[in-house]
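Reopening this one. Same input as before:
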Amino acid sequence: MQARELAVPGAWVFTPQSFPDSRGAFAAPFQEVPFRQAVGHPLTLAQANTSVSRRGVLRGFHYADVPPGQAKYVQCVSGALLDVVVDTRVGSETFGLWDAVRLDPKTMAATYLSEGLGHAFLALEDHTVASYLCSTPYNPGAEHGVNPLDPDLKLPWEQYIDVADLVLSDKDREAPSLTEACEAGALPTVKACQARAAELAG
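Same output, byte for byte:
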């Protein structure tokens, strides 16, 4: 298992060794020991989510109040997606910075996004199935969004699909910009996220 921290601190991509044979291939996209060595604490699991999307569907980007926040371990089990993490932690040196990873069944790679980070993904093929493990249960009162088309963020959607062909929920399309969310005091702080990480590390 290879672990690489992304440009946004607190986010990693994990790429397992694949074992192909005449039947297909096998890999273990999550492994506790290399995960704990990279992140500094075990993965807490409270909920598993699955979404099915056609090409052009853009989901997010979303984040949760910290504490407790909601970390995610994301894998693509069918099709292909562009997984994007945005630093939404007020006070972070990389606030507003993003990084992106292509996920698909060929590499069987997965991304981990720690508490306080924003998350979105774009389906690059029809019948793209994303599976992600969440550290806390769904809590609608603590979950928020930022508009993924916020022009100040310069997210890379147009490199893959024409903006006119993107499919968003009304909630995501009407979400505030990152600046608006910051001015409203709706974003997590880097101090709260650091305290949460220290708590998880014991």
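So the earlier flakiness isn't reproducible anymore. For the record, The chain has a mean pLDDT of 96.
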